[in-house]
Amino acid sequence: MSDYLSKTSSNADVTILIIEDNPVNMSILLHVLMNAGFNVIVADAGEPGVEMAQNDLPDIILLDIVLPGIDGFTVCEQLKQIEATEDIPIIFMTAMTETESIVRAFEMGAVDYITKPINSAEVLARINTHLTMSRLQSDLEHEIEERGRLIEELDAFAHMVAHDLKNPLGNIVGFAKVLEKGYGRLPEKDITFALEALSDNAYKMGDIIDSLLTLARVRQSEVEIRSVHMEQVINESLKRLRPNVQSARATIDCAASWPEVQGYAPWLEEIWVNYISNALKYGGEPPEIYLGWDELSTGFYRFWVQDNGVGLTPLQQEQLFQPFVRFHGAQAEGHGLGLSIVQRIVLKFGGQVGVQSASGAGCQFYFTLPNLEQPILSV
User: Fold this and answer.
1) Which residues on neighbouring strands pair with residue 19, listed in sequence order?
2) How far, in Å, CA of 149 to CA of 155, rounded?
């Protein structure tokens, strides 16, 4: 077995469909493949083989050419015309060694062929080779898809930089010019105003850069998931946001008790800080916020932040958790990175994010995490 295959999956996770009408050959193949630990399903004719392939979606198909009813070539042709089965690797089994039959097998879409009588070592070698190639191709497709998403994010990032960084930078340059040219003649109150504006705009730029760095760390870093007391995480989050809460004259109520979860405390703190910050920005006047949780039947906990804001339309909800998206631009400041950070963290923990909202009725932003009975992984 190849090193790649052995590192990525056990044979028990691999399903092989054998389409063969010869009892002797079928018995040999079953013995070889089941001893190797594969999950094996069988069909003794072409039509039931096509049906089985569609229903079970095997990882690989061993297909005899000579079959009762439709032959192996026709089976292969039909499977390649069905979207669900077109990418399943097919290895022909044949006693025919004529070049014409072999060429036709490849023209039909087969990836390989095995000649009869069956050689056990050859069968296993060819299966493992093509399973490895299939997984490598799947990994490559996933990487290409991920690169596509990165390109989209970079494009969105360029627009965000042009707006969210250019504006405060322009303000900094403008106020610096004012101080440079008129410092000796300006009243003290104007100097103080200009200096405060410089400081505020510099902090805005720093917040944006910090969020971008957090987004990058979540994407690239690996952490060990362990048991975390959620109440401690929430307390730390509220300490960070105490000036914001006081400035907004907000009230925040929390559930009386909180469970332990699997996670990584610094990243969980980022989730709560982002959710609560949004509730402070987009909540009512003044914001009224409630933090709570409930236990799901799926072995997960659901945690949520409820605000008393104007809520979100269905279209706005569809656009949430995308990098650099924000709403209520005239109502509150923000650079749209927070929800993307939340989503990346929660997905790494095996959970989900979401929002429940109705126009005029506020929003409830939530995320789910596995409880302590679920397997602990590293991400």
Assistant:
1) 43, 63
2) 10
pLDDT tens sequence across 260-310 = 888 888 889 989 998 999 899 888 889 999 999 999 988 899 999 999 988
- The DSSP secondary structure of 294-350, one letter per residue, reads EE-TTSEEEEEEE--S----HHHHHHTTSTT----TTT----S-HHHHHHHHHHHTT
What six digits make up the tokens of 61?
């198909």
Helix (H) or strand (E) holding 243: helix 242-248
For helices 265-282 and 230-240, the axis angle rounded to 10 degrees is: 50
Tokens describing residue 277: 């910050």
Q: How confident is the model at residue 159 (pLDDT cuts 50, 70, 90)?
A: low
Q: How many CB atoms lie within 10 A of CB 179?
A: 15
Contact 218, 348 (CB under 8 A): yes
Give residue 275's pLDDT.
93
Please state, in angstroms and rounded to a whole number, the distance separating the CA atoms of residues 162 and 254.
Answer: 39
Q: Across the strands, what pairs with 292? A: 304
Confidence of residue 155 (pLDDT cuts 50, 70, 90): low
- Taking alpha carbons only, the member of 13, 32, 171, 154 closest to residue 93 is 32
Percent pLDDT > 90 in the chain is 35
Distance from C-alpha of 342 to C-alpha of 333, rounded to nearest angstrom = 18
